[in-house]
Structure formats: C-alpha cells, structure tokens
C-alpha cells in the first residue's frame, strides 16, 4: 500500500461484472448495472485505516459503501490531501465528466450533494480517474470550488 497522509479524501474504483440487485442498508434493494463505480469518501484522521477497511471483507457493515463492496471488486484507490468537503467536490468532478448517479443519497447522508457513488460504463470508466488526475490540478480546482 502507498504511504497515505493522516487525513484527506479519496476515490474508490470499483468494478461490477454483472447486473446485481444489492441491499444497501436503509436505502433498500437497488439494481446496479455492470461497469465501474467510483465512491468519493473522506477520512480526516486515519486515512490509511479507512482505506484498508474498505479492502477488508471481515467487517461489520456501517456505511452504504460496505454493502456495495461486499458484492463487487475494489480495484484501486486514489487519495487527495483535501478537507472533508473535498468528497463532494470529487463526486461533482466525476459527474461533470460523464458520470451518472445510480442511487440518490448513497454515502451522502451528511451533505446535500446527492450521492457520492458515481457510475460509468466499463468502457468509459476503465481509466477516467487516472485521466482526470493527469489532466487536472485537483487541489487548485478544489480551492476554486470551495470559494
């Protein structure tokens, strides 16, 4: 694993091979199409532990993402040294670049941005985050976003 800062925001890159109906805690059963899903989250302390938890299959389900990860494959994670509002910013960037919101309220019960889970088809999602990171200065754009 890479050397993570103590706190920040992150994106999880998750692949779902086939269409599945998954119960997402209090949100209930939802049908998810095959493709790539990106989850924007925050851990302002102990970022490494939070990301390691996402990779673990031995955990109690606490967050919406826990239910989804139990039925899908976590391929990669990307982190940024941004404050907590950065998770909404990352979700917004993904939506602005063609991502769709498959489940309203997913991972966003403590904010007003709608959803922190963003969907792309397999073809579009395979390299989207890597391309965005290479094309953008995320920290600079966040400063503009948060003004």
From TrEMBL:
Pfam families: DUF123. It comes from the Bacteria. Residues 24-121 form the GIY-YIG domain. GO terms for molecular function: endonuclease activity. Keywords: Endonuclease, Hydrolase, Nuclease. InterPro entries: DUF123, GIY-YIG_endonuc. Coiled coil: none annotated. The keyword Oxidoreductase does not apply. This is Uri superfamily endonuclease. It comes from Halanaerobium saccharolyticum. The lineage of its organism: Bacteria, Bacillati, Bacillota, Clostridia, Halanaerobiales.
């Amino acid at each position: 694993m890479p050397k993570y800062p103590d706190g920040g925001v992150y994106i999880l890159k998750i692949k779902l091979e086939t269409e599945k109906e998954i119960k997402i805690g209090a949100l209930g059963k939802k049908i998810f199409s095959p493709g790539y899903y990106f989850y924007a989250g925050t851990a302002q302390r102990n970022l490494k532990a939070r990301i390691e938890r996402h990779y673990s299959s031995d955990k109690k389900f606490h967050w919406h993402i826990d239910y989804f990860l139990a039925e899908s494959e976590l391929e990669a994670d990307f982190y940024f040294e941004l404050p907590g509002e950065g998770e909404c910013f990352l979700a917004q960037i993904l939506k602005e670049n063609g991502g769709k919101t498959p489940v309203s309220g997913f991972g966003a019960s403590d904010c007003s941005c709608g959803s922190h889970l963003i969907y792309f088809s397999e073809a579009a999602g395979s390299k989207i985050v890597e391309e965005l990171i290479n094309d953008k200065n995320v920290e600079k754009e966040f400063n503009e976003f948060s003004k």
